[in-house]
Structure formats: C-alpha cells, structure tokens
User: What shape does this take?
Amino acid sequence: MRRLLVTGARGQLGQDVCRQATARGLEVSALDLPELDIASQEAVRACLQATRPEAILNCAAYNAVDRAETEFHQALAANALGPRNLAVEAERLGVPLMHLSTDYVFDGRATRPYTIADPPNPLGRYGLSKLRGELEVQALARRHYVVRLSWVFGAGNDNFARKVLGWARGRASIQVVDDQVACPAYTADLAPALLELLGSGAFGLYHLANQGHCSRHAWAAHIVGAAGLGVEVVPVSSRAFPTPAARPAFSALDTFPLDGILGRPLPPWQDATERFLREIGART
Assistant: This one.
C-alpha cells in the first residue's frame, strides 16, 4: 500500500491517521468537508478516480449524538449513505476499505465488555445510523475492515477530556456522571494500530480501544489529578444531566482478537490520558 485516501481528515482521529501515514512514507490524500461529501456517490466516484488510492480509511462521521434524534437524515447521510458510497467504489476499484464505527451500536445492558460476537441494539438514532453504515460496508465491500471505537480523544479537536479541563478551571468542584462506563481511546494510539490493521489483510469486524474501562467520573478524576488541578470531582447520576438521546450505561469493548493481530494491546487508558495531557501542555 502506497497511496491512502483518508476521509474525515480534519477530525481528531483523521489528523493523527494522516500524520502517522505520512511518517510511514505513504502518499496521503487527506479530504474532508467541503471538498468531499461522502454522502454524494458522484463526488466519491470522482474523488477515487482522481486519487486512485490503494486503500481507503473512512474517519468521516456525524457525531452529534443528541442532534441525531431530530436530524436523522443528516446522520444517515454521513454515517450510512457515505460508507455505502465508499464501499461501492472501493469494490469497483478492488481496494480495501476501513470504516470506523462506535460502541453506541450496543444498548449498554451488558455486565462485561462487548465482543464482536455480541448483537448490536442501539438505544438512539446516532447508534442506529452507525450500525446501518457497518451493515452497508459489510454487504458491499468484500475487502473491508469495520472497527468500533469508544470515547475517542486526541489533541486535534474538542472531546470529553478537554471539556473536563475546561469545567475544572476556576472551580472548587465539578459534577461528572458515574453510571456511564466505556473504554477511553487515544487517537495517538489508535492511528498506528489502524494503519497496521489496514495493511494486514485480516479483513473483518474489530473492537479497538486502550486497555481497561472506567466510568466518566473515574476518567474525569484521573484527568484532574494528572493535570495537578485541586478540584473535587463529584459523582452524580445521568439523571442529573438529562439529554435527548440515551447513552449506553456500559459499553466497554473487548478487543479480542485484534490484540493478537497487532501483537500487542494498546496501552492502559490511564497512561494514554497522561500522554494526552502532556501533548496539549496540561501536564509536565
């Protein structure tokens, strides 16, 4: 693989994927809105004809979980129709397509991390749109990778970790929910793992995240402590912060068998969080 097309290239994960791919000597076509709308089949076909990639990594997505309840067509366009268009054109060119999905395809009623064998059952329309995208890619592109991620954070854009730092500024205490549990996933760790998988030829469905899982509250407490902020992090129920879309209570991901394919698991989420804080200058 020499030529890689990255869609959603200006997102926090897309930025790290492009950086890592370039460092590996790949020729990267890094595209995002407005120059490429993957929901347009005509635009996708023209893009692939112009760039002639040897692999496609789709980081593009509609991630507004709450707005998806009322903007379902927009969510479907980006999260289902876009992946379908990429899958059709990848199959036409005979190149592999990697599509990124989410832990929100699960309902959160499990008591242990979800495996790739567990049946999806999304709670909200965002998760439903992402599940539809998975199914389109699996049906239409024979050489596909579908990789579910959870609680993604990186230096490139806004995310939960950055929000915690913002909430903590100038306050003695903050409230964070303790009844939502999943796996933080640092883009600096995800990007090289995704590129290694993309080059492996081991097509299929995978889960990827940093080792371990935690509640939003436990993660926030670690962020505040690692950043040296003297702020109390108070645990509260999700009922204290009602949202239009329900979140899965427990959506930790079991990363078997991907750890074996990569030859290693990703570092623990605590280590990843501390490296992130150093990257953005919030920890020495």
In short: The mean pLDDT is 96. The longest strand covers residues 97-102.
